[in-house]
Amino acid sequence: MSEENRLGDYLRARRELVTPADMGLPAHGIRRVPGLRREEVAMLAGISSDYYLRLEQGRDRNPSAQVLDALARVLRLDDTATAYLHQLAAPRPRARRRPSRRPSVPPATAQLLESIGLPAFVTDRTLDVIAVNPLASALVPSVRVGENRLRSFFLDPAERALHADWSRTAAQCVAVFRRRLGSDVDDPRVVRLVGELSLASAEFRKVWARHDVRPVVDKPIRMNHPQVGELSLTLSKLDVDGPDGLMLAAYHAAPGTGDAERLALLASLTTGSARRPADAPGARTAHGSPGTR
């Protein structure tokens, strides 16, 4: 995303995803652009073509809320994407000082990871894993402290093989990542991560270029696990209180199902292999030690 024209980049990307047929327009002749033409968006939104062109080119960055809502309707944005559009158009706050330290997991959250009895881990705002319990690493081996979930999804073949719906799951991960960042994408770590993945993965480039955004909601996950077989789970995410944008994620199965039984089997295998005579397993954190007991 261009640092100088985030609103225009977003409008252009979403315009290319809407077809004339979506809006009841005839599609006569050869079209040189995917999706709607600029003048078609302007006409449907009730604004001038010149004004819309200025918005896309970044020459006008202060559209009214009414104009943004009209554009959201034409571009077929849902509530989350509409809120994101308004966020991109809002005046940017003064650049905040970024902490030089890595965020730390609150003691209560580390204790929860250890005692929850479910595969669970904590990520920061760039989706770096900063704490994980043994069951989460047994379920998804790439979920390790220091690994990045986006990097694993797009660059780790084992991660791809694990997910039965890899394309959908990876796209959702990118959309949630973009939504959590909002307009604050100039964090050097974000810039480096997006640049690395854009160079290394054509699939990431394609998904990132769509500018999809999704809220953080429970989502179904289907896996082909090498030890316990097929699993249909739900991945739930909760914000962790504090200034660092941490998120706790946990996989769980519907009670009384075969998936719950297979997840329990994995837990028993993990406990048996991880326990040592003088050391019970605990959640690992970015500091390399078990969480607070």
From TrEMBL:
<dbReference type="InterPro" id="IPR001387">
    <property type="entry name" value="Cro/C1-type_HTH"/>
</dbReference>
<protein>
    <submittedName>
        <fullName>Transcriptional regulator with XRE-family HTH domain</fullName>
    </submittedName>
</protein>
<dbReference type="InterPro" id="IPR041413">
    <property type="entry name" value="MLTR_LBD"/>
</dbReference>
<dbReference type="Pfam" id="PF17765">
    <property type="entry name" value="MLTR_LBD"/>
</dbReference>
<dbReference type="GO" id="GO:0003677">
    <property type="term" value="F:DNA binding"/>
</dbReference>
<dbReference type="InterPro" id="IPR010982">
    <property type="entry name" value="Lambda_DNA-bd_dom_sf"/>
</dbReference>
<feature type="region of interest" description="Disordered">
    <location>
        <begin position="273"/>
        <end position="293"/>
    </location>
</feature>
<feature type="domain" description="HTH cro/C1-type">
    <location>
        <begin position="35"/>
        <end position="85"/>
    </location>
</feature>
<dbReference type="Pfam" id="PF13560">
    <property type="entry name" value="HTH_31"/>
</dbReference>
